[in-house]
Amino acid sequence: MSKLIVANWKMNGSIKKINNDLNYYLNNMTTNRQNIVFAFPFTYIAYAKSIFDDKQTQSKLASQDLSRYGGYGAYTGEISNDILLDCGVTYSIIGHSERRVLNDTDEILIDKLNMAFNSRIKPIYCVGESYKVRQLHQYLEFLSKQLSILTKTKHIKDLVVAYEPIWAIGTNLVPEMKEIEEVALFIKDYISKTIPGINLLVLYGGSVNGSNASDILDVPGIDGVLVGGASLKIDEFTAICNVV
Ligand code: PGA
Questions:
Q1: Measured from the CA of 206, which atom of ligand 1 is nearest?
Q2: pLDDT for the residue 30
Q3: pTM of whole model > 0.85?
Q4: Helices 234-241, 15-28: crossing angle, 10 deg rounding
Q5: pLDDT tens, position by position, 21-59
Q6: Are 136 and 172 in contact (CB under 8 A)?
Q7: Across the strands, what pairs with 89?
Q8: Could you give the CA distance from residue 40 to residue 91 in angstroms, rounded to a whole number?
């Protein structure tokens, strides 16, 4: 099975950059385009879709979040599942550590996950411990707690879990491959015991770049990577995509 590669642009980009970068990517990709996903800021998603449609690529789009409220209505500033689907979104990142610190509580995350599961949006649910928790060797307990909210959601069929240790995000620090393997297998075991029978992929995210991607993608239990900073350098990101 080929691996899933997700670009998380966070709060970056412009019309010009997206036009330039997607054209570079589409001209330089060799294989497996349907397994490459771009998460642009909300306002650029429809524009990116028009480029994808124009070039007939099978690559996918993700949102970096979605509203806990569904459909349409009086929720000023919110962006719902239906609006995202209309703009061509296939995946939604939910529970990124940068959103958890901005007030995404467990209760809100359960609503967002349900919103995705009830539509056709596949959630990329992010989990990951702080440096302090890792030092205290309490990371598996911590991750279990973050994963446990999945058992409170309904209608899960397709799930992507991204293991993103907070201390590895944007720091150039990457866990040992054995440490990534331990957590990937732990997540798979946890999910198979608590929510059996679902389609699960486990990604690693945190300082993935052109030099370490192929080693990380070879780790047993790892089905793909979530790439932040390095996805903004389109030649580096395209090289990562061409590894799979
Ligand atoms: P990074 O970010 O690749 O820049 O570490 C990853 C992420 O936050 O998704």
A1: 5
A2: 83
A3: yes
A4: 40
A5: 999 999 998 876 889 999 999 999 999 999 999 988 999
A6: no
A7: 61
A8: 12
CA-wise closest residue to 173 among 208, 204, 139 = 208
pLDDT band for position 80 (50/70/90)? Answer: very high
Residue at 40: amino acid letter: F
Query: How many CB atoms are located within 10 Å of the residue 64 CB?
Result: 20
DSSP strand pairing (60-63 vs 158-163): unpaired
Which residues approach ligand 1 with their CB closer than 6 A?
A: 8, 164, 169-170, 205-208, 226-230
Average pLDDT over residues 5-25: 98
* Ligand 1 center–CA 52 separation, angstroms: 24
CA distance 52 to 60: 8
Q: What is the pLDDT of residues 198-243, one digit of tens each?
A: 999 999 999 999 999 999 999 999 999 999 999 999 999 999 999 8
Distance CA 137, CA 38 (A): 33
In this structure, are residues 129 and 142 in contact, taking their beta carbons and an 8 Å threshold? yes
Residues in the chain, how many? 244
Cα of 32 vs its chain's centroid, Å: 18
Short-list 57, 79, 217, 59, CA closest to 202:
217
Of 236, 229, 178, the C-alpha closest to 211 is 236
